Amino acid sequence: MTLDRPFILYLFGVFLIYCSSIGVYTLVSSLNVDEGLGTWSLALAYATSLVAATLSPVIGHIFGCKKLLVIAEVGWLLFILGNAYTSYFTVLPGGFFLGLAEAWGWTAMPILNTYFAEKRAGPQNKEKLIRYYTGYYYAIIQGSAIVGNGISFAVLYIDRTLAGRHNTTNATERTIDYSICGANDCQIANITNANMEQYEPSYPATRYILIATFSVLTLIGLFVHILYLPTDASWNIAGREQVATNSPPETRNVDAIQLVQVPPTDETNRDDEELESFIESSVPMVGVEALHCENLQKQVKLTTVFLTTLKATLKISFKPKHLLVVLLPIYNGMTISYCLGELTRAYSSCMLGVDKVGVCVMLYAFADCVFSLIAGKLGGKLGRNLPYVIAFIIDISLYIFTLHWEVDVGNAQLVYVIFLMFGCSDGLWQTLITAMYGEYFPKEQKLAFNLWNVVANVGFLIQYSISTALCVRSKIIIQITLLCVAVCAYGVSQVIYYPEELAQNRRKVKDVVNNVTGRLTS
Predict the structure, then answer these.
(1) Model-level pTM?
(2) Most CB contacts within 10 A, which of 47, 182, 465, 466?
(3) Of residues 450 and 495, more confidently modeled
């Protein structure tokens, strides 16, 4: 099936903007390592995102999808420009604008995906086309993450190459103090300043070139959307059938979750009818007063939907079943932020140089994408428990290895393997935790996905908030502890609420093991 031109232009703009924002995002903690400004800005971003997401339904209704996306893209542009120079007055405001962009941009884009699909679809194939268009959208997101980090690698690699040619001391002979890297990284100011060459480009102009490149790409994508995005994409607060349940692996910040479908209840309907009746009887429907009445009705409905959604989400969040699994999405959010904030700084930049961050994140994104597909097929055949065990083993092994790893020149390249393996485990965690929320709460799926996204963002916020306060070694111990407790609590939920599913998964795994063993011995 050929894609229509407006949708292609929309995807082109998304590709340019996301490859630029993720290219800068993965470098923030390294470029702004001084006083931990980079990680503080990301903590501010996720705190802002959590607050701004609650306003998404109201803001979206006021401005519409196109304007909301354009506003978000301006926020991404300001985030990129804020990282052109390290200072409190540039990096922290950039983090604030990133939070707004993440909250509102990821709200508008899934609705536009559905709009394009519904506009082309007939009554018989609407759902099929929605999945079809959404698949292209997420393929573009994954591809743009790889391209964005590829651009940052190319620019920074040229910087290091030129520096090596012009310096009297060859760059490959530069002494690197590995004792302050990895688990021993504590972001101590005097130590960081003494090794700043590992975290920053060799030439100051390189940073400006990198930021200018990403800014130009973002501007092109922004103008494409301003010129070609449709203005008739409606904002349906009551909920689209399209729900953003699959967030990009690099950011996990899809706040389109606020567009949940709240099942209308008799109580809600009665409230709406009473409010409308009160407004109609209190205000004469003439001229300007009639317009004021209409606006007041809209405000009342927005407030009703917002409060109803919030109340229903809080009700799910405190259910015992949810309390037993809530640590899994928190762990997942903390792990992704650990990989993109701590690993990129303490391992990639410190051991290999800032120019290698792009390569490491590309490996992470590639493995994440592949194992997301594997998780879907493996989970469908054997259930989620076996993939959970595999992801658990991968993560625990990586944490123990990095905790006791004695780095030297001969084994520093293992950083690439660490990124690759963390991408593998995240592909399993991310895919199956998202699906688990829908399966644990089948009658409240959209609200459950809403809750999943909020809880995952809390994980991001926690990790970035403690970044400058603790050494990486302490963070690894926290990750191990949280993972063990989360998996044990999940196991309890399986025993209590899904004993039949647990037994069924065991039989499936046993059958597979027997089949494999039989083939090997025959």
Answers:
(1) 0.77
(2) 182
(3) 495
